[in-house]
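hi! just following up on the protien thing from before. the input was this:
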Amino acid sequence: GVMEDKRNIPIIEWEHLDKRKFYVFGICMTMMIRVSVYPFTLIRTRLQVQKGKSLYNGTFDAFVKILRTEGTAGLYRGFLVNTFTLISGQCYVTTYELTRKYVSRYNNNNAVKSLVAGGSASLVAQSITVPIDVISQHLMMQRKGESMGRFKVQNQDGKRMLVFGQTKDIIVQIFKADGFRGFYRGYVASLLTYIPNSAVWWPFYHFYAGPHLLLQAISGPLAAATASTLTNPMDVIRARVQVRAR
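and the predicted 3d structure came back as:
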């Protein structure tokens, strides 16, 4: 009957995708989403790290205060470094698809394939993302003339340090303080956030996604919203572990 037909949406497998278009489209979409979401990520991170309500009363208050004291640039601290996580996004998709293919030899259940592949893809992606995240979060913590985190960027003779100068500065400080392990602070918390997140994301994605490209574009964020609502508490812990002193 009609009901069976409706659930029989063909899931687009890797072989049938026009990969170049998919990657370019994916990156453009991701960049657009990131540019619009980034200030809120920065604000959320600062709100999670501040002690009580010492600096900001909430999202809107933080938004206004940061704009006033640090300008638009303040809302995008660490953004350039953060865009490197796009690479991990591509690694994620590739790992996901390859694992899915591998699992289908042993088990053809869509949910199983999505769970296993989502989990593995997450592991690979997080190994790339966490260090970038740690660095960009420390950059997010730099306020005018002070820092909310453990590390403070040196202002070289009053000139505003170039983005990559600041980045190098933070990298050196993290390494001095904690060695290589410093870049993997919160790695376990991250895995605990994103492996379930990712494992949950794909079945939801397939649930929301029809064959239409626009639908797929929308179902990504929809599935992400569903998944991140489920994993938010872990995310708070992750931000604190990464930025706070021991």
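The first strand starts at residue 142 and ends at 143.
Residues 37 and 177 are 31 Å apart (CA to CA).
cheers
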